[in-house]
Amino acid sequence: MITITWLGHSSFSFQLETGEVILIDPWIDGNPKFPEGYSIDRVDTILITHGHFDHIGGVRKLAAQFSPRIFGSYEICAWLGSKGVTDCNGMNKGGRASTPGGMAVTMTHALHSSGITEDDGSMVYGGEAAGYVLHFPDGRTAYFAGDTDVFAEMTYLAELHKPSLAFLPIGDLFTMSPRGAAIACRLLGCLEVIPMHYGTFPPLTGTPAELASLTSYRVTELTPGVGYGW
User: Domain 3-229 class?
Assistant: First the structure.
């Protein structure tokens, strides 16, 4: 069993049966939905979908504390390297890489931007936004969309990787809405979807209930900080 813990917004922790912990888009300080009192005690791998502060904000601090293996776009890894972060492995869409614990990840397309905010407040190019297919050691796959709108090529992801679980943003304004996510569910053909990137700020108005009303696929609403066995 894999334990999935939502850390608010688009931040997630995945703990494998063997104990390895994978974080995706960790945003801790300043995250209004980060679970109060939650402690991150181990990090083996960090996956970064794009360079916006609400997805990359905790990476440098966690890297200094745990020395994990990090994966992201070539541009993001180059930027992190310039800040002293080590073991950041640049990759690109379609590429597959192995992570600690016997897991593998494939970087996928996403329809979004990816600017990185420098320490002085200026913004630099962060490559293109991405998502990931997570290939777990037990043979199951999950699709983590990152920040994106729905796109027709999701049918190819279904054909290539056959994910049984999808993590989809539903907030609207910066990503797809529940209506778009319902179409994504159909294109992906996943048995189950976990909504994310909603409710953090007032403009992110989409809700899991709205998505559930628009799709016949199972919508699993997580509570930040509470582990979900999958």
Answer: alpha beta
